């Protein structure tokens, strides 16, 4: 009988055993989690209810916000619960489920960021947008599904202690007593190709967009176009350049504010919804 069938749970060590530091971590992550879910949920509601946000750009933003909410819920709530209850164990099935959805959502976000700058009507249309969104989700699924099938064949006979706060790809491989050379190579290759592919497409997209913007005669329109593009570039820079703990909390929290605070249409839609709520209560 193979040892991976006997293993029933993993132990996630977390970030720190220091009680005072755990309090700080809990407060920080809890606030980031609440703001992330509330901000992204607000964007979804606004894009569904406001007629001025029924454009191609906000279709992608709606998908992106849904991915952010799901991505955040994969790891943060369980980690917050572990800090409170002091229970660090996670079942084998739940651990692999967390690994699957974490990478699935994370890679799908990367792929979805690629077509988001191409929201101009001359480049996009209502038929292409759903296809590109579906392709992003499919790309995320195909990135993690083959390696996950191989991970299910691993033996965990030496230890079940994972030096991380959630079930991530490489920390899981480190506790296996099987030969993980192929899986490590696949993980590195997929991560490298995904990053290189998405960044190359984004750079190519922006070269085309900047060329188009520079041909716009009015300076105010050029400024508005550059402002929209800069929001997207900030999100990409954050997604590519932060650590795992920040990627699961800070990135999803900042994205709604980056897109809304720099976008007059979203701010106006929020004001309209707020006024409707206040007006209905005063009736």
From TrEMBL:
InterPro entries the UniProt entry points to: GPCR_Rhodpsn, GPCR_Rhodpsn_7TM, Olfact_rcpt, Olfact_rcpt_6C-like
Provenance organism: Muntiacus muntjak (Barking deer)
Highest taxon above the source species: Eukaryota
Topology of the protein relative to the lipid bilayer: Multi-pass membrane protein
Keyword Transmembrane listed: yes
Main location: membrane
Function statement: Putative odorant or sperm cell receptor.
Domain G-protein coupled receptors family 1 profile intervals: 39-238
GO molecular function: G protein-coupled receptor activity; olfactory receptor activity
Keywords: Cell membrane, G-protein coupled receptor, Membrane, Olfaction, Receptor, Sensory transduction, Transducer, Transmembrane, Transmembrane helix
Cellular compartment(s): Cell membrane
GO cellular component annotations of the record: plasma membrane
Spans traversing the lipid bilayer: 23-49, 56-76, 96-116, 128-152, 188-214, 226-246
Name of the featured protein: G-protein coupled receptors family 1 profile domain-containing protein
């Amino acid at each position: 009988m193979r040892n991976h069938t006997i293993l029933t749970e993993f132990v996630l060590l977390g970030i720190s055993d220091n009680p005072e530091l755990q309090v700080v971590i809990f407060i920080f992550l809890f606030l980031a989690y609440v703001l992330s879910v509330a901000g992204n949920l607000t964007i979804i509601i606004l894009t569904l209810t406001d007629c001025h946000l029924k454009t191609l750009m906000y279709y992608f933003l709606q998908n992106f916000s849904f991915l952010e909410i799901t991505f955040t819920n994969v790891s943060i709530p369980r980690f917050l619960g572990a800090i409170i209850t002091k229970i660090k164990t996670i079942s084998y099935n739940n651990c692999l489920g967390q690994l699957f959805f974490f990478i699935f959502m994370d890679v799908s976000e990367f792929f979805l960021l690629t077509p988001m700058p191409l929201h101009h009507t001359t480049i996009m249309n209502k038929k292409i947008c759903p296809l590109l969104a579906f392709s992003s989700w499919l790309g995320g699924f195909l990135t993690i599904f083959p390696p996950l099938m191989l991970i299910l064949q691993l033996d965990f006979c030496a230890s079940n202690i994972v030096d991380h706060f959630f079930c991530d790809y490489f920390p899981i491989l480190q506790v296996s007593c099987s030969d993980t050379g192929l899986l490590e190579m696949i993980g590195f290759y997929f991560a490298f190709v995904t990053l290189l592919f998405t960044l190359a497409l984004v750079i190519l997209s922006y070269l085309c967009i900047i060329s188009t913007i520079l041909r716009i005669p009015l300076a105010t329109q050029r400024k508005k176009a550059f402002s929209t593009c800069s929001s997207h570039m900030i999100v990409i820079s954050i997604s590519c350049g932060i650590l795992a703990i920040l990627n699961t909390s800070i990135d999803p929290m900042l994205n709604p504010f980056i897109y809304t605070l720099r976008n007059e249409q979203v701010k106006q839609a929020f004001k309209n919804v707020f006024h409707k709520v206040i007006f209905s209560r005063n009736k």
